[in-house]
Specification:
Distance between the termini: 74 Å
Radius of gyration: 24 Å
Number of helices: 21
Strand order of the largest sheet: 1-2
Shape: globular
Order of helices and strands: HHEEHHHHHHHHHHHHHHHHHHH
Length: 509
């Protein structure tokens, strides 16, 4: 006879595994302490591995890379004399502070909240997640600025429609980081990687010339695939794990007359700003075009995208504040900017510890040697065809856990694999695609990516007790399923010999 006991839904083995990862990760020390511990481990390892004479040969140049002992007199002098410049030169630090001046004013005046209300009230709720994921993927056109701008906006969208803002943060960060190479437009990353690919190809074929569009067709298909996969992962894992948000919720109230007036003037200023930028970019002789070639990708516009984004938020935020009567004078404007920067204090302290640890790792050459040794291992396994390419993808994914910079990793790996695959009859275009897939899929879960620390600081706004384990366990499904889906797409492309871009194919002709 069946009793009246409550039926409890059993968790799947995946949920149980993620719970264990979360518990283990959350037992880790505070992120600042963790970075200090990791820095100490790197210092000790640099001494031990240096004593053991660990080294690797740099492909192409044949230079010997040795582990540098950072506990030696030379190493300690380097650490002490470079400590301040390491911190001030930490790329995310300036990017975050500069960008947050604009975003902070737009947030403090109420512009972002009003825009979010407008979006939510006019867009179907069912399309919010795929819309955010697609925006995150395409947002990589703004380079690393997408890591700073999009996650907090997505969190506000989620909170305004009664969903957990932490889920919005995780979903958007996963899209930006995990789909870093996918896009529907050519970005500066295409040009950056092309230069490295060409140089590596010249080892085997001095006459080789590549194109920035060599991966274009594959990356377009990847964009839409990742939107589908990301939406499924968000629904299946992310939102159920975070559940209902129990913090202070911003209720979605109808727009007031002043808010509508503010949005009107913010829109006018935004359109005027876009028009001015367009005039300087669209003509071949535009002021923000490359002054030598007239090109767009290597132009002042692309290199100046951060200050451009600063004014993209600052000017409309100011216009909104004045029109909506949120600010009455310059002192109130300054106060709102001060408040937004003050909220970044925890990140600034965290950035100091993270910058030192990452610098130690780079100076020691441990990451470079591990990358080269891993690549040599794959070469020694003598894989061929598709298994070889998939093996290369996985090697790149592993190396990405150690070295976050896309260009730095490719500079190490390209001189080995581009010539090797050329000799086997494969074009540099397919080798670069395999690298880009591997480089992207583990981005969400590597703490070596500086923006992981930023994500944690954003998350603490909504849950001050949230830990690294919670973030990694929530991001892991995106890495796993992005990897599965992307590798399957790669295999289909490879087996059917589809063109990778205009005039670029898998095999040499």
């Amino acid at each position: 006879m069946q009793g009246n006991s409550q039926i409890i839904k059993k968790k799947s083995w995946i949920d149980n595994m993620l719970d264990k990862i979360e518990r283990a990760g959350n037992k880790l020390p505070d992120p600042i302490t963790l970075f200090i511990i990791l820095a100490g481990i790197v210092l000790v390892l640099s001494w031990v591995l240096s004593m053991l004479g660990i080294s690797a040969v740099q492909p192409g140049t044949e230079d010997v890379i040795e582990v540098k002992n950072l506990l030696s007199q030379e190493g300690l002098i380097l650490i002490l004399t470079q400590m301040v410049s390491t911190f001030t030169g930490f790329a995310p630090l300036g990017l975050v502070i500069v960008t947050m001046i604009g975003i902070g004013l737009a947030e403090q005046t109420g512009l972002i909240s009003a825009v979010m209300k407008k979006i939510v009230m006019s867009a179907p709720t069912k399309l919010i997640v795929p819309f955010i994921i697609f925006t995150g993927l395409v947002g990589n056109l703004a380079a690393d600025a997408a890591f700073i701008i999009l996650p907090p906006i997505a969190a506000m969208i989620f909170m305004s429609i009664g969903r957990n803002p932490l889920a919005g943060l995780i979903i958007t960060y996963a899209a930006v980081a995990g789909g870093f190479s996918a896009n529907i437009l050519i970005s500066s990353l295409d040009v950056l990687l092309l230069g490295i690919t060409e140089s590596a190809a010249h080892i085997a074929d001095p006459a080789y010339t590549g194109r920035a569009t060599m991966n274009y067709y594959f990356l377009i298909a990847s964009t839409f695939l990742l939107v589908i996969i990301g939406t499924w992962v968000a629904k299946k894992f992310t939102e159920p794990r975070f559940g209902t948000f129990n913090g202070e919720v911003e209720k979605l109230e109808p727009l007031t007359a002043l808010e509508k007036r503010g949005l009107k003037w913010a829109g006018i200023v935004t359109l005027a700003y876009i028009l001015i930028i367009a005039i300087t970019v669209i003509p071949s002789n535009g002021l923000l075009r490359d002054p030598e070639t007239g090109g767009f990708l290597n132009s002042p516009f692309m290199s100046g995208i951060v200050p451009i984004m600063l004014f993209f938020f600052l000017l409309p935020g100011l216009a909104y504040g004045i029109a909506a009567k949120e600010v009455k004078n310059d002192k109130e404007v300054a106060e709102k900017i001060f408040k937004s920067i003050a909220d970044m204090a925890p990140f600034i302290v965290l950035a100091f510890a993270a910058s030192q640890m990452i610098a130690f790792f780079n100076w020691s050459n441990i990451g470079s040697i591990l990358a080269i040794k891993g690549a040599e291992l794959l070469q020694a396994l003598n894989f061929t065809g598709l298994p070889m390419m998939i093996g290369f993808v996985l090697i790149c994914a592993f190396v990405n856990l150690l070295i976050a910079s896309a260009s730095a990793k490719w500079a190490l790996l390209a001189p080995i694999f581009v010539p090797m695959f050329l000799y086997l009859g494969y074009t540099p275009a397919i080798t670069q695609i395999a690298y880009r897939v591997g480089d992207s899929i583990t981005n969400p879960i590597t703490p070596m990516l500086p923006y992981f620390a930023i994500l944690l600081s954003f998350a603490k706004r909504y849950d001050k007790n949230i830990g690294i384990g919670t973030l990694i366990s929530s991001l892991l499904p995106f890495s796993v399923f992005f990897a599965i889906g992307w590798i399957i797409l790669f295999a289909i492309w490879f087996l059917f010999g589809l063109p990778l871009g205009p005039g670029d194919y898998i095999y040499l002709k």
